[in-house]
Model the fold of this input.
Amino acid sequence: MPKLSRRTVVLALPVLAVAGRAWAQQDWSAQPLQLMMVSSPYCHFCRAWRAEIAPGYAASPAGRVAPLFDVDVDGPFPDGLALDRRPRITPSFILLDRGTEIGRVEGYVGKHYFHPVLEEMMQRAGVDLAAS
Done:
């Protein structure tokens, strides 16, 4: 059996993580509304969003109604996903109802405007944020 160097193991970890996500099934019935963030590890705006918005997103009205999960722009994407078009801009925030896209915000508008823009998109899609 060949010996694995630390470098080989460290370089293989992202590949193994992506492969593990590819086999995972998304249960769309467990949480009908979800917000999918399409990001890239090289995206400056994705890092800014994670630093400025991510820590409080789950406690926000939008976060209580539509929990967030993250997908790499290069995939793999969850099974059963029905999008209007393939996301090419990072970050993109895609509102899903049982795996079907019902709204999208492309790009990061900054910490002062993110929640108002997201909530407006959710209201246009018929999501009641007051019920959260």
Observations:
- Residues 8-23 have pLDDT under 50 and may be disordered.
- The longest strand covers residues 33-39.
- Residues 10 and 40 are 19 Å apart (CA to CA).
